[in-house]
Amino acid sequence: QVQLVESGGGLVQAGDSLRLSCAASGGTFSNYAMGWFRQAPGKEREFVTGISSTGSNTYAADSVNGRFTISRDNAKITMYLQMNSLKPDDKAVYYCAARFAAGSTYHRNLYYRNQNEYNYWGQGTQVTVSS
User: Fold this and answer.
1) Which regions in the chain score pLDDT beneath 50?
2) Is residue 91 a contact partner of residue 39, using CB atoms and an 8 Å limit?
């Protein structure tokens, strides 16, 4: 059973940067593909960005592409989301998620965009961007 804990959220101004962290425990971190999702008030949870278990492959939603960067440090058992040029529309609760993705090289280089493909979730961290 994998446990995920997000941190780093807060209140920032438009144009500022923020880095979220997702600390994992209870599993072999390098065997899990990871992702960030977010849920704004009154909206459904949406995909932000994902990274393969190897860290070699990433994918970001169009809304954040070029501004947000996902990364992972398997030695530190932590995933990160670097958010630059934040906008008020980025205000949301941000969740990290994990799914088992080990075995073949093919599977270890996959990222996932559908929240139904993830098995483990953190409790979320609030990001608020003022205009």
Assistant:
1) none
2) no
